[in-house]
Amino acid sequence: MAAANQTAVLEFSLQGFSEDPQLRGLLSTLFLLLYLVALVGNSLIVAAVSLSSGLHTPMYFFLVNLAILDIACTSTVLPKLLQGLVAPANTISYRGCLAQLFFLTWFLGAELLLLTAMAFDRYMAICRPLHYGTMMSWPLCTLLAMTVWMVSAISTSVHTGLMARLTFCGPNLIQHFLCEIPTLLLLSCSPTALNSVMIVIADVYFGVVNFLLTLASYGCIVASVLRIRSAAGKRRAFSTCSSHLLVVILYYSAVIYTYFLPGSGTSMENGKVVAVLYTAVSPALNPLIYTLRNKDVKAALWKVVPSSK
């Protein structure tokens, strides 16, 4: 690097999973399969809901937003991960790293907000069924969806802007397979106190507050379902929210582990595995979770698949 550039890192090296060629080949196949499943599965969800008038309800409107977020999130990470597994050198430019950080943080934050909106929708449907049609109107649903995307985008813009003002003068090895705020802060040679404060504020809002709101919604849902006398009514009520609850548990478990536990030692290695859960495994599993127990979506998918042949 030229003398004039000794104080500025132009690219970062990403730490992969293994240097073993056979294991790298196996991981490449696994991640490619997960990526294809996520793309195909979530695209089918979007197509099925869009083409089936019977699914034009608030619940499936939010499900389409979730599918779009899953496609965007996995597409932000997995192509670069796959490239790093097959290329001799796994590097990413400074601008490319900030771009990946921006979009990944945007989509992760939006998904947390969206899960809260979906929990509120299920609360209204089960606990306030007589007011559901009035409260969950299309203008309100559209406003909620727009708020989810915009609030997360604004928060991410602030974090990315604060990250861009930092100086990186070496080392340039990111101990992760992607660019995230916590791992990048470890490499900065500038004061990061303001960044750390903003991270805490974002973690409290996106993680703690939204988790508590989701938990409160499901607490009310469980209490309401338990008051239903018939067993068939209880099963029907639980079936409408069990899939979403499973997605919430899987997603929050991975995100909380990543952003609330120290990123050093063995936890850093475990963090890579956990990051795979919310960037690859969760986007691939969500379409299966939402369709295996949903007769309406399965029926709509059967209409979409033959028409695409």
Automatic annotation (TrEMBL):
Residues 41-290 form the G-protein coupled receptors family 1 profile domain. Its main location: membrane. It is found in: Cell membrane. It is a multi-pass membrane protein. The keyword Transmembrane applies. Gene3D superfamilies: Rhodopsin 7-helix transmembrane proteins. Keywords: Cell membrane, G-protein coupled receptor, Membrane, Olfaction, Receptor, Sensory transduction, Transducer, Transmembrane, Transmembrane helix. The keyword Transmembrane applies. InterPro entries: GPCR_Rhodpsn, GPCR_Rhodpsn_7TM, Olfact_rcpt, Olfactory_GPCR. It comes from the Eukaryota. The chain crosses the membrane at residues 26-47, 59-78, 98-120, 132-154, 204-226, 238-261, 273-292. PANTHER family: OLFACTORY RECEPTOR (PTHR26452). Belongs to the G-protein coupled receptor 1 family. This is Olfactory receptor.
